[in-house]
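User: I'll paste a sequence; please echo it back and then give the predicted structure.

Assistant: Echoing your sequence first, then the prediction.
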Amino acid sequence: MSNRFFKIVAVAAGLWGLPGRGTLQAADTVYMTKAQALAWALPEAGRVEEARRALSDSERAALSRACGLPFGSAVQWYTGYQGDTLTGRALFLDEVGKHQPITFVVALSPEGVVRDVAVAVYREALGDGVRQPRFLDQFQGKREGDGLTLGKDIDGVTGATLSCRAAARAVRRAFAINRELVQTVATPP
């Protein structure tokens, strides 16, 4: 079956409700709904807790220092638990491709290692090759501090260079959020 079979075209705004762009437009291509993305990213979780945080100026500065990227006014993440045991985290991050944001899902292990990366929503006209497993699988096992430079540490996809760079930025942001915010506030209940 083709990838088009699995596409769900969003027709209602507000489906995601995430920080950043936050809403979908009729032309956006949704590859995973929020519920599907959480089930994919946190498969062992018996319960998933959402956390949203408005960032102070000092937190934004710390996050920017941690990954070399600017941050907006809020972040959001999901933490999975099986009983009281942490099973992982999922971060939904909007990164601009060529013109539009691409919503990436970064799944982290309890130790902060990348389990996987997926494209949940793609809004560009071209460059959706960034969704290819042969590209996204390169992020599996990456840890904070590992190289994420396109063309050096990560092989890109022809025709999707800007989208590939956006994926690497999403992973860098996920590492920064996990280290600077999540690990300091997320403890099992």
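The chain has one domain: 34-185. Strands lie at 8-9, 29-30, 47-54, 74-82, 85-96, 101-108, 114-122.
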